[in-house]
Write a sequence for this structure.
DNA sequence: ATGCTATTTGTACCATCGTACAAAAGAACA
DNA sequence: TGTTCTTTTGTACGATGGTACAAATAGCAT
């Protein structure tokens, strides 16, 4: 929207646009989309409500811009890490590297801000829970490619597991990831203070460790001899 | 609120109160708390907006009543299943039984309605993501006991794993559970139609299989020789 | 300084929200 | 049938929501 980047433009004084984006990201990620008003965002950013309309036209537009801002860098970083992980020779190590390549960028942003990755991932978690339309569209068309790439990579390192099972398990991984960012205090509470749910480094290690084992679990078909009544479908 | 249960009371004709509860549960679980208006709920239930106020006083009161309705039966069923699971001799089988005791009631209600358990669990997932205050309070004081019971039971069957690790892994399980109920279509999409994310029986088996393996993963301490910079804290 | 453009402010409109409340309708029992 | 209590309806009020828009302001090139 700006025309004259005469060496400042991005580094204007307090840069309202960025402040609004950051405030919105924070509020949306914490309280959900509908619970936060444009006025709340403006107030948190030290801006005027009208300013939000000026920069992003609508509230949806603001959310859209947040996604645009993060999706590219995050997927890029994931792709890089995935490519590196695929080059690991040992299959066990490779699997761990792949999982790490998936998890790490979700906790720590690959581009600008410090905890930006975690904040944005939490935002995605919340939007997904709320069934937000804007988010749903972007997510499907932006992350599915990356998700498939990861699933394929994992499948390559675990050829004896049906792809369907890997899809389920990677789905569980994303759920665990989301939930860890949404309710970290629950971990602290249930561990009676022995663990800090907000400690990203620790969360990552725990998640990688558990997830690698989950992926390595035997496939479903050969594991459950006879029990459930309705399945009958999934196979490979 | 009713005074004369002359053998009907609960089984009145279309029972508005129940219809409102069901509609609210459904809408909240799908769209979140703030996105749904009292008028939406009334409309979906075929009731009058004022009727909601009459029965539940406030919108928060309505949510509260939904929780009250489900928490008891669900925890009861979980306790029963957990008690049965603890009696399993073989440690491997016992662990699986415990996980199943945790997962199954979340997908299928223990009391009345068919998919009620899944619907309520999804509702909890969404409320947790939105940071809903009413839900947060009830959850902590209603589910933490059960959660501790499960964690202890799992710890008993895996004595060599530090309790902290088990807390993390059970947290991941709940995240996976929530996410599977919130976005089942993602599983169908990523598996290119080979799996049905909405198939509860299949989801349960996949989740149990993966989670048991995750719990059985080696403890973190002995697994990560030297890597991260900040941890230093958790130990047992 | 002067004009030009990008931004910020202030305000106002209209829709919708949660909730209150009086009136109507129904149900149960004398 | 009339009385009483419960439930449902209809409507209204005040607050807050998203968004539009004119006026004010600030930066920059000339």
């Amino acid at each position: 929207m700006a025309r004259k980047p005469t060496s400042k433009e991005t580094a204007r004084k307090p840069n309202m646009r960025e402040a609004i984006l950051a405030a919105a990201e924070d509020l949306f990620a914490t309280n959900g989309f509908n619970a936060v008003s444009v006025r709340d965002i403006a107030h948190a950013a030290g801006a005027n409500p009208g300013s939000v309309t000026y920069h992003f036209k609508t509230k949806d537009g603001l959310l859209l811009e947040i996604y645009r801002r993060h999706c590219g860098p995050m997927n890029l970083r994931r792709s890089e890490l995935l490519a590196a992980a695929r080059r690991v020779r040992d299959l066990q190590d490779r699997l761990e590297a792949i999982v790490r390549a998936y998890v790490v960028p979700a906790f720590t942003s690959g581009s600008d801000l410090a905890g930006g990755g975690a904040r944005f991932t939490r935002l995605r978690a919340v939007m997904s829970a709320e069934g937000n339309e804007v988010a749903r569209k972007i997510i499907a068309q932006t992350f599915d490619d990356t998700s498939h790439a990861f699933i394929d990579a994992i499948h390559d390192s675990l050829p004896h597991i049906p792809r369907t099972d890997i899809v389920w398990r990677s789905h569980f991984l994303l759920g665990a990831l989301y939930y860890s960012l949404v309710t970290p205090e629950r971990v602290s509470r249930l561990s009676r203070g022995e663990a800090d749910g907000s400690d990203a480094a620790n969360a990552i290690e725990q998640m990688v460790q558990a997830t690698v084992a989950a992926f390595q679990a035997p496939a479903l078909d050969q594991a459950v001899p006879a029990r459930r009544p309705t399945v009958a479908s999934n196979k490979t």
Notes: Residues 1-4, 12, 16-17, 47-51, 54-55 of chain B lie near DNA strand D (CB under 10 Å from a C1'). Chain B has a mean pLDDT of 88. Residues 15-57 of chain B form a domain with the Arc Repressor Mutant, subunit A fold (CATH 1.10.10.60). The radius of gyration of chain B is 20 Å.
